[in-house]
Write a structure and sequence with these properties.
The chain is 42% helix and 6% strand. By secondary structure, the chain is mainly alpha-helical. β1 and β2 form a beta hairpin. The longest helix is centred in the middle third of the chain and has 14 residues. Strands 1-2 form a two-stranded antiparallel sheet.
Length: 71
């Protein structure tokens, strides 16, 4: 039996259009750390400006540097 996996990606522009008025705390996490509402907003705005379309396109090391996340 073949086990299929399903990957869900978040479209960043869609997130801004449909969920921007909500509290986005915990919507994304990095290295097991839940991001705050302000961190999510900063990351999404930055990623869209850089031309990323989906959350899966964003390199984790760039997010760590952007948000100054300590190991």
């Amino acid at each position: 039996m073949i086990k299929e996996t399903h990957t869900i990606k978040t479209n960043l522009k869609g997130l801004k259009k449909w969920a921007w008025r909500k509290n986005l705390k915990g919507f994304f996490s990095v290295k097991g750390k839940e991001l705050s509402d302000a961190q999510v907003r900063k990351m999404v705005d930055w990623a869209i400006a850089k031309g990323y379309e989906y959350d899966a396109d964003i390199p984790v090391d760039e997010v760590i540097e952007l948000l100054n996340i300590k190991p």
